[in-house]
Amino acid sequence: MGEHQSRNPEWGFATRAIHVGQEPDPVTGATVPPIHPTSTYTQASPGKHKGYEYSRSGNPTRVGLERCLAALEGGARGAAFASGSAATAAVFATLSPGDKVVAYSDVYGGTFRLLKRVFEGFGLVPVFTDETSPAAFARLIDSRTKLVWLESPTNPLLRCLDIAAIAEHTHRAGAKLAVDNTFATPALQLPIALGADYVVHSTTKYIGGHSDVIGGAVITRDEPLMERLAFLQNAMGGVPGPFDCFLQHRGIKTLAIRMERHCANALAIARHLKGHAKLARVVYPFLEDHPDNALAKKQMCGGGGIVTIVFKDRGGDRGDRASALRFCESVRVFSLAESLGGVESLVNHPAIMTHASIPKEVRESRGITDGLVRLSVGIEDVVDLLADLEQALDKA
User: Fold this and answer.
1) 144 belongs to the catalytic site
2) Of the CATH numbers 3.40.720.10, 3.40.640.10, 3.40.50.10300, 3.50.50.60, which one belongs to the domain with range 7-252?
3) Given 100, 106, 108, 370, the catalytic residue
4) Tell me: the pLDDT tens digits for 226-237?
5) 205 is catalytic
6) Is 381 labeled as catalytic in the residue annotation?
């Protein structure tokens, strides 16, 4: 998967995922390189070392992960962080007081929290649009705009934004474009090939893929952009430990094949649930009735592993909180938990869980109602997932 935008003429996506940054150990020949759990490095003379001085500044296990991520995204270089939020904060920290950040309104709750409750206090000016069209972004981008921030697909409403078109408007104004590619992963979508300057990941999700590690990453289009990020990575110190880097890199090796199964299971579930008597809406980018279906199929080679459902309400389609909560409490194969992207299937109630930091009136105006549930579809047998959803819907 992802071959439609591959920038490496020698190796395909899955081969890069398995081999880049995982070269055999030159000392022992170990096929899997050793983990380097060291805080410091012995020097031959002051300032004379073998490329490493202190593990906040650089660690061989982390460098291997960063090289692999850059190779998968088609970027110049990657920087790994202790979490997706730390990676996001590093991008915002490249800006200065008075700089304007334009973003689509349906963003991860943690990103909204960083912009509104942290960086706005430092002088950044976040501006959100409720429209997905490139023209809507163009109307908001001006000389003060230094960064445009996108998620595509968005979290949790799964809207897809035209990365290439928005990149044109962004660059015309002299600003930079950052794309959170956590939901799609480089197996399905390559934002740098579409014009992004930064690609951001919560590697906790599909990159790690096994719900056993927290991490984040930023990959840049060119080396000069990385110079500032690398400085912030070292100066602010939000770096992952070597064991976390090892787990993320090990997860990457199966990313291609995992995403195939995530996509197949999610599409099957979306089609099965569509039209269910208790649901007002079923949202999935590769369903034909999705408002961005044509765009999704143009810039992605799979619909991803997330399906969003909205329960019916007596008063309309805003959703029924009680039904949604009963459903969440009744699943057995799925787990009720925050996060997404692991091999295990999860259900999440964004209004109470992942997006609770967004004020209720803002959240509901953006469509994140109390009847909305996000499904992170794992790689279990799809017949078991369908049966579990049916019994939970019966109880709802």
Assistant:
1) no
2) 3.40.640.10
3) 108
4) 999 999 999 999
5) yes
6) no
